[in-house]
Structures are given as C-alpha cells and as structure tokens.
C-alpha cells in the first residue's frame, strides 16, 4: 500500500504499465519510485509468509519488473528519493508536483553507481533463484553479481545500498561453479577449480588443490566432506583409480581436521588398517605441507605431534613406524624424551605380543613362534621384487625348515611346463626354489608390462644358472630376448623408432639357433618372426633365412611367405609364386576334416567336423600370430587373402572388397567343400577390427569393414564406415574424395543402405555421384512419400537440373506449393545454369558434394 501511495505522489498514473514508461525522460523522484516498487516486487516473491493470492499476482508481474530494472541499468543520471521534507512540501503545495520539487535536487540524492549496484544485486538474486528451471539464467546472475562487486569496490560503503557482502561472496562462488566465466579477468576460485577437476576427471590436480588449501585452509569442512562423498560414490561404481584419490583427499581432510582441533574421521582410521608404503609417504607429505614448523604457533605443533605419535601407536608393522619416526617432521616436532617414551611404549607392546605367544606355546606344546616367523617371511617373499631380498628370505626359510618347497607358496607363480621340468630337476632345494621364483616373478612382471623389475629378476636368474646349467642359461637368454622385444615395442617402437641393430641380430640368432635339448617356448618364435615383419626385415626372411629353418618352424615359413608376397606388391601376377603358396597354406589351416560312420543299413552319416591337421598350425594360432603384426602392408596382405577366401563361398551374395585382392588365385579345385567358411567369416571380422586398432584412418580397411556390415544387413553401421573412409582421405570432405575410394560400387552400396533405411532423398542425391547419373533410381526414390530423412532441406545439395525439374513437377502434381518453391529456388541458382562453362558447373557440383557428405557424416557418426 505504501509503495502504491509513493507511486501516486510521484505522479505515476494508476494502471500504467511501468515497462512502457521511459525512465530516462521521467523526473528523478518518479523514476526512483518506479524502481523501488519493482525492486520490492521481486523481493516479495521470496517471502514465504505472503499469502498465495498476493504471491500469484506478484509472480505474474515479475517478468515486467525484471525488464524495468534491466532498463534502469541503462540510466546515466543521479536519482532522488522523497524525504519527509519533500513530502511535507507536496502536502502543503500540491502545485509544486510539476515544479521544482520533482525536477530539481530536492530530496535524497542517489548516485548512478549506488542505484546500479543495488539493482544489479537484486537482479542477480532473482536470476539465481530462477536458474534451477533455466540454466542460462545462472550466467545472467553471475554477470550481475560480478558487476555488483565491481561497483562496491568503486563506491565503498554506502548507506543507500542494502547488500549483504558475505551473501554476495557466496553467490559469486556458486555462480563461478555453476556457470564458469570464459573471461580471463575473473579469477577462478578453489570451488570452481575443484568442480572443474571433478567434471573433467583430472583427479591429480584435485589432490594438488586440497594439498595447497591445507597450507592455509579456506575451504569449509562441509565442502571438503561433500567432495569426499562424491569420490566415494564414484569409487563404489568400480573405478579402482579413485580408491587412491579417495584416500589422498581423505588424508588431506583429516590432517586439516587435526590442525583445527577436530577428531580424526572413522573412514581414515579404517583405511590405515591396511597401510602401504605409498599411503604413509603421502600422509607424511600432507603433514609436512600443512604446517610450517618455523612459523607455526606452539598449539599447532602440539596437535601435529600428537597426531603423528598416535599414528605410530596405531600401526602394527614396525617398518611403517620407522618411516614415520625417522621423518624430519617427526624429529622436529617431538622432543627427545617424547621420542624415547614412544619407543618404550612400542617395545612394551611388542613384549606383550611375544609374552602371549610364549604362554600359548608352552600350553599347547607347538612351535607357534617359528610358524609365525615362517608365515611372515613367506608373505614378504610373495611381495618382494628385489632379487637380493628374495635370496635372503629363502636362506632364512631354509634355515628354519628343510621340509618345505617354497616355490609352491603362491599359486600365482607360474612357469611354462617346458621350463618347469628342467627347473624342478635341480637337486639343491634352495637353488631350485630361487630359480623357479625368480623366473616366475620375472614372467609375471613382463606380463603386466613392468619391464624394469622383470629385467632385474631375469638378470639375477641368468647370473645364478650360468654357474651350473648351460641349458637354463640359454633359456634365460631367450627370455631376456623376448623381454627386450616387448620393451622396445611398448616403448620407443610405438613412435616408429627402429630397433637397434644388436636386437635385430639377436632375433636372427635365436631363429637360427641349433643348440640341442634346449626347451623352447612357441611364443618366442612367434614374437621374433612378427618383430622382423613389423620392422620390414623382408630381405632376411626371403633370402637369408636357412632353408632347414623354413621347413621346421611354421612361423618362419609363414613369415617368409608374407614377406615375399608383400615385397612383390604391386608386381606382375605371373611372378607371385609366394602368394600362391601362402594361399594354399591358409586354405589348409582353415579346412576341416569330416568324420563319417556307416550304419547297419549301409548308409554313411556325418558325425562331426574337426579342424584339419594338414595345416602347419591351427587357425587360432594363426590368428594369434597375425594379431602381433603392426606393419600395414603385411596386414593388408593377409586381410585381402581372407577376404578372397570368404568371397569364394558359393552362398556369398555381396562380396567384400579389399586392397590387392586380385593377387590371389581365382579358384581352387575341390577345396570348397572342406573349408570352414563360418570360421573364415569370423576371422575376417576379427582381422578388420584388429587392423583398425592399428590404424583407424586406413580407408581401404574402413571400406572392408563397411562391406562386412553391408553383407550382414547392418546398413546404418555400413554407412558410418563408408562415410568415415571418405572423411579420412579428404580432411573431413573439405577436399574431393579420391575416385578409387568412392567407386561406383561403393556409391551403389551407399544408395542401397539409404534406400533400406527409408532415406529416399539421400538416395536421389547419391545417384548424382555415379559416373552416369542413375535417373531411374533417383526418380523412383523421390516418388516415395514415407521418407525418413530431411527431404526438402536436402534440395540445396542437388546440382543435376533434370532431378530438380522432376522434383518441381512432382510437387506441383501433389499440390505441395512450399516444396515446389524450394525446388524452383534451387533451379534458379546462377551457378547451375547450363550455359555456364564446364569448369563452373563442375565446381558447383563439387561444392554440393562436400556439403552433402559433411551433413551425412554428422548424421551417421
């Protein structure tokens, strides 16, 4: 009521919409009255005590009030508000309403900055409240709050602005998180940085922020706990990496709690029930960064000292206790007598444990203490990767008992059978255990790509067996060669750096080795041949490898034929003897033998099919070998062979294409009935998928993958790969796709895919891509009325005038005036005029091709 009276006094006619009034042209007191009224309108919406009817009316007028306040921010003049004196003047002399009182400086002066500061704050609050239903309003709120901060810093404290600066700071922090500013002028807060890390998964940076905040805490404990809960929820979903991050953030929070006099949390205590060296190291790092010993007050020093002392008392493993007690922070915070007292307490605790053990031993008359010691040493033996420490543990164990085989302590220690028989034949128990464990641990480290530890373990094992067993010495040299191959291929080899000549010589030496009675692992030969193929040592494989080795080692024979075939490409077909030999070998590998049985009636029935034993290896062994290859030409060669074999099946309707497929024999007498074509089809799919993991931008492989999907009626996936093949060789269709990629066959298959997906307008456009435009298919497609594509939105991509004229006729016939106009507009483009030079017409067609293919890629990628 008071505000309405103020409006009347300030000469605002009742029923007038404030949004229609120009504030800049109004007297200062009138404009100020309108501002006050609309400010209060927005504030009252947040008051729960207001009755529902009033609140409904206020909400209906809220949008207009917001627009009025936004308009007020454009004013660049001071405003005046009525005081008791000016109201008295108005009461005594009503005629002065149009006179000096409202137009002059009478009343209380409100500067432009003060007015804008208050209005920005009010608008920010209402935008923030409405942001839950419209996220963009959070950005508006952010801008208004940041502007309020700027104005406050400019005008200082003001009696006329009612702004809660703590609340404003909270608003700014919340907006910084909900709608981060792109402007570099707005400094990022720890809150926004933390939320950014959580969104992007940059957890290492998150830990750094918490560590930095521990130096001078600014984050509230509630916020810290909220982040910890989020990490806990994500960790429970199965992300193992987050377990470590969860511990680190929990450690930062608990050290912060300790420094602020709060108790240690239950989660943190539970985590330290299973301590590790990494956990203790990080915890000590947090403690060191959370206190400056030189400048810290005495109370903070005592809090940290008590925490470290209690930490030591809570740990059972003396190794971890020693890590803490020898740390410089522990030494700096605890006095000498405190450290001595702690050591005495630890000793008494140890004595209590030993005393209890002795009582039980004497009572039951069993060697409990020895058993405990053996168990502890076995546990250390399982965990240790240090060869010297493993040897020391085994010496201690064998000193306690000579009846145990300690190589059986862990069922994870696995040594290949070809090696196990030799190792277990060692007579000395200690040496046998040591050799077996060193090799088993080394093989495990190699499997998990911990090549540094694997090399140390193998080197120690080699040094040990050299003294007594030439056979095991050669075994270890072979394993170290395999390890060096793995190390190179997983390291610098990934960037294309050639292996050192010494490694290549060792690989050749292994293949040519003629030492009798040496146990050999098949995987070493596989990796050596794959290594030579990957680094294009074709001359050695085709010309220098001993003939006897080719006859005895199937992988060398396969490698020789692959190298020779790849080397011949693209050569004359008559000289491709290697391709024919390779074809025959693979056909034999993929063949099956039939087992028959004659019944009592004399009829012969088929019992089962089995993999043929005529091949030099089984199909799964061949596939395993191929998946070790990375050289593109070799992969292309073997892939084209399998594609050719797949296409020779009499039931294949849609052939799959591959590069160099013509080098293989066109027919093979009497093999069709014995080849397992189902296995061949599965192999082709696996090979293409593997090849694309090596190079996902090889357009020939992508076309092969697309053909496989096309042949199996997966048309959307087929289009995806056809388009991807075109995209990778044209910089995402910014250049023309080479004609050897988008052949007529590929275009026709894309047309069929679109047709079966009911995208008939796309069919018509693709018909233009053929060397001779297929008008019949295009017209038939355009006649379809149940098209699932964008239809007339694609007309801009048509450059063939005949198709556009047919579209115009078709829409006219159907009475579709709007679509007819779109087609006429497309025909009317000057660059499609048939009188233009051929170069202009070609340029227009190419431009439309590129745009259409880009639109298709966005649809199917």
TrEMBL record:
GO CC annotation: chromosome; integrator complex
Protein's GO biological process: snRNA 3'-end processing
Protein's cellular compartments: Chromosome; Nucleus
Keywords carried by this UniProt record: Chromosome, Nucleus
Record-annotated INTS8 TPR repeats domain positions: 371-860
InterPro entries reported in the protein's UniProt record: INTS8, TPR_INTS8
Main subcellular localisation: nucleus
Transmembrane residue ranges: none
Coiled coil: none
Sequence similarity: Belongs to the Integrator subunit 8 family.
Protein name from the UniProt record: Integrator complex subunit 8
Gene symbol of the encoding locus: INTS8
């Amino acid at each position: 009521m008071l505000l309405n009276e103020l409006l009347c006094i300030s000469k605002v006619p009742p029923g007038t919409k404030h949004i229609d009034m120009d504030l800049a042209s109004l007297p200062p007191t009138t404009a100020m009255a309108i501002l006050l009224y609309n400010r209060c309108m927005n504030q009252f919406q947040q008051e729960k005590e207001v009755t529902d009817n009033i609140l409904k009316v206020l909400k209906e007028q809220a949008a207009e009030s917001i627009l009025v306040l936004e308009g007020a921010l454009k004013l660049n003049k001071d405003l005046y508000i009525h005081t008791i004196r000016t109201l008295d003047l108005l009461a005594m002399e009503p005629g002065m309403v149009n006179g000096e009182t409202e137009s002059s400086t009478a009343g209380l002066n409100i500067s432009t900055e003060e007015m804008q500061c208050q209005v920005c704050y009010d608008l920010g609050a209402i935008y923030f409240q409405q942001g839950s239903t419209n996220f963009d309003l959070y950005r508006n709120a952010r801008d208004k709050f940041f502007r309020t901060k700027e104005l406050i810093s400019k005008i200082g404290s003001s009696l006329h602005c009612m702004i809660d600066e703590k609340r404003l700071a909270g608003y700014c922090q919340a907006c910084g998180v909900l709608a981060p500013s792109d402007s570099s002028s707005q400094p990022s807060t720890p809150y926004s940085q933390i939320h950014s890390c959580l969104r992007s998964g940059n957890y290492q940076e998150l830990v750094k922020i918490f560590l930095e905040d521990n130096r001078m805490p600014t984050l509230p404990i509630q916020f810290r706990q909220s982040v910890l809960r989020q990490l806990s929820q994500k960790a429970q979903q199965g992300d193992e990496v987050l377990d470590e991050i969860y511990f680190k953030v929990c450690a930062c929070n608990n050290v912060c709690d300790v420094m602020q006099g709060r108790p240690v949390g239950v989660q943190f205590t539970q985590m330290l029930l299973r301590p590790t060296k990494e956990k203790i190291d990080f915890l000590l790092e947090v403690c060191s960064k959370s206190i400056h010993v030189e400048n810290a007050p005495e109370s903070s020093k005592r809090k940290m000292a008590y925490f470290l002392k209690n930490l030591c008392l809570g740990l059972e493993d003396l190794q971890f206790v020693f890590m803490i007690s020898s740390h410089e922070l522990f030494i700096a915070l605890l006095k000498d007598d405190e450290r001595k007292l702690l050591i005495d307490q630890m000793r008494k605790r140890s004595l209590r444990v030993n005393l209890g053990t002795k009582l039980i031993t004497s009572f039951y008359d069993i060697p409990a203490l020895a058993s405990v010691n053996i168990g502890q040493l076995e546990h250390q033996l399982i965990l240790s990767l240090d060869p010297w420490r493993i040897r020391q543990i085994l010496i201690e164990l064998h000193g306690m008992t000579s009846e145990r085989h300690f190589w059986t302590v862990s069922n994870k220690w696995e040594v290949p059978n070809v090696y196990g028989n030799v190792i277990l034949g060692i007579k000395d128990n200690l040496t046998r255990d040591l050799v077996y464990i060193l090799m088993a641990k080394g093989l495990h480290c190699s499997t998990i790509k911990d090549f540094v530890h694997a090399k140390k373990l193998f080197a120690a094992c080699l040094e040990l067996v050299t003294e007594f067993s030439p056979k095991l010495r050669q075994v270890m040299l072979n394993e170290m060669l395999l390890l060096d191959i793995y190390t190179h291929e997983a390291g610098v080899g990934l960037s294309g750096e050639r292996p050192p000549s010494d490694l290549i010589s060792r690989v050749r030496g292994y293949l040519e080795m003629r030492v009798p009675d040496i146990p050999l692992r098949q995987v070493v030969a596989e990796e050596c041949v794959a290594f030579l193929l990957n680094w294009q040592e074709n001359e050695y494989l085709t010309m220098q490898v001993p003939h006897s080795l080719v006859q005895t080692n199937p992988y060398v024979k396969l490698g020789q034929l692959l190298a020779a075939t790849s080397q011949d490409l693209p050569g004359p077909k008559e000289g491709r003897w290697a391709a024919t030999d390779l074809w025959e070998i693979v056909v034999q590998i993929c063949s099956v033998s039939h087992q028959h049985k004659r019944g009592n009636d004399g009829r012969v029935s088929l019992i089962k099919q089995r993999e043929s034993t005529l091949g030099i290896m089984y199909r799964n062994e061949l596939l395993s070998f191929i998946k070790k290859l990375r050289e593109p030409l070799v992969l292309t060669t073997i892939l084209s062979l399998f594609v050719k074999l797949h296409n020779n099946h009499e039931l294949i309707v849609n052939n799959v294409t591959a590069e160099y497929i013509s080098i293989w024999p066109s027919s093979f007498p009497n093999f069709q009935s014995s080849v397992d074509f189902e296995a061949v089809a599965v192999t082709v799919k696996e090979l293409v998928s593997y090849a694309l993991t090596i190079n996902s931008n090889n357009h020939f492989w992508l076309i092969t993958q697309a053909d496989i999907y096309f042949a199996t009626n997966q048309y959307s996936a087929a289009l995806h790969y056809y388009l991807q093949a075109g995209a990778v060789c044209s910089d995402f269709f910014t250049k023309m796709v080479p004609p050897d990629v988008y052949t007529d066959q590929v275009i026709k298959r894309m047309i069929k895919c679109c047709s079966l997906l009911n995208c008939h307008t796309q069919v018509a456009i693709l018909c233009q891509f053929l060397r001779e435009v297929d008008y019949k298919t295009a017209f038939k497609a355009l006649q379809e009325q149940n098209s699932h594509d964008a239809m007339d939105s694609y007309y801009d991509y048509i450059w063939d005038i005949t198709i556009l004229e047919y579209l115009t006729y078709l829409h006219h016939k159907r009475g579709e005036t709007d679509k007819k106009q779109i087609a006429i507009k497309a025909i009317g483009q000057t660059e499609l005029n048939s009188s233009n030079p051929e170069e202009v017409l070609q340029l227009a067609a190419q431009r439309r091709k590129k745009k259409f293919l880009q639109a298709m890629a966005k649809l199917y990628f």
